[in-house]
Amino acid sequence: xxxxxxxxxxxxxxxxxxxxxxxxxxxxxxxxxxxxxxxxxxxxxxxxxxxxxxxxxxxxxxxxxxxxxxxxxxxxxxxxxxxxxxxxxxxxxxxxxxxxxxxxxxxxxxxxxxxxxxxxxxxxxxxxxxxxxxxxxxxxxxxxxxxxxxxxxxxxxxxxxxxxxxxxxxxxxxxxxxxxxxxxxxxxxxxxxxxxxxxxxxxxxxxxxxxxxxxxxxxxxxxxxxxxxxxxxxxxxxxxxxxxxxxxxxxxxxxxxxxxxxxxxxxxxxxxxxxxxxxxxxxxxxxxxxxx
Length: 292
Known about the structure:
Structural class: alpha/beta
CATH class: Alpha Beta
Strand order of the largest sheet: 5-10-2-1-13-15-16-14
CATH superfamily: Acetylglutamate kinase-like
Helix content: 25-40%
Strand content: 15-25%
Radius of gyration: 19 Å
CATH topology: Carbamate kinase
CATH architecture: 3-Layer(aba) Sandwich
Shape: globular
Distance between the termini: 36 Å
Number of strands: 16
């Protein structure tokens, strides 16, 4: 029998009750940030979460938008282990695009849907303190590791969530660009998944949701694994079933779990209203990660 609108609302009710007053951190990235329809769906989802009593906190990426501006300026991007080498000129563009264009576009869309969004970077209110990331590459175990300089790419050393608490208590929705501040005033470009995980931990969030371009963690037959434990993830990384770009995502999910977050989710943002479907339905649409 086809589900009626009433059936869907009744299915959502216990989840709305469960998450009311709780904090949900959402990392917003991938195709959902490019497609106009999906952008509108995401803005609707975040606004609805706030209206039903949940405190959404959004951390966004912006790789394609950064690439577009760098290309227009004739600046060639170089990637080291999936991370953009960030010299001073590139950092200026990253900060301009993430903290300016991308962040304010998300804020405007949520506000158009009736939400009260406020844009931030990690530099605001001392939110994110960072240090230069160090990358070690060891191709020969008989030789010392090579130290690779990624430029102004940062690692999070501290999160001070005071500004987020202040905004959410006043009914606002924080939208955060993943840029941090060094101890000597340097600006660092930081991976958005990592920032979302660290902020979720600092907030003791109920959920961390990583919005990506893949369905979640897949089994050997490329079928979605709807639930997976930290122990199973370790086994699947070791035997190669979890590989490539999924490894850093599950590592961020696990890091959040080890630091106070109740559950993490990896979902496909190409699905309309992906956040609502993952949070408010029995089956969900992605992979739920939890501890044994």
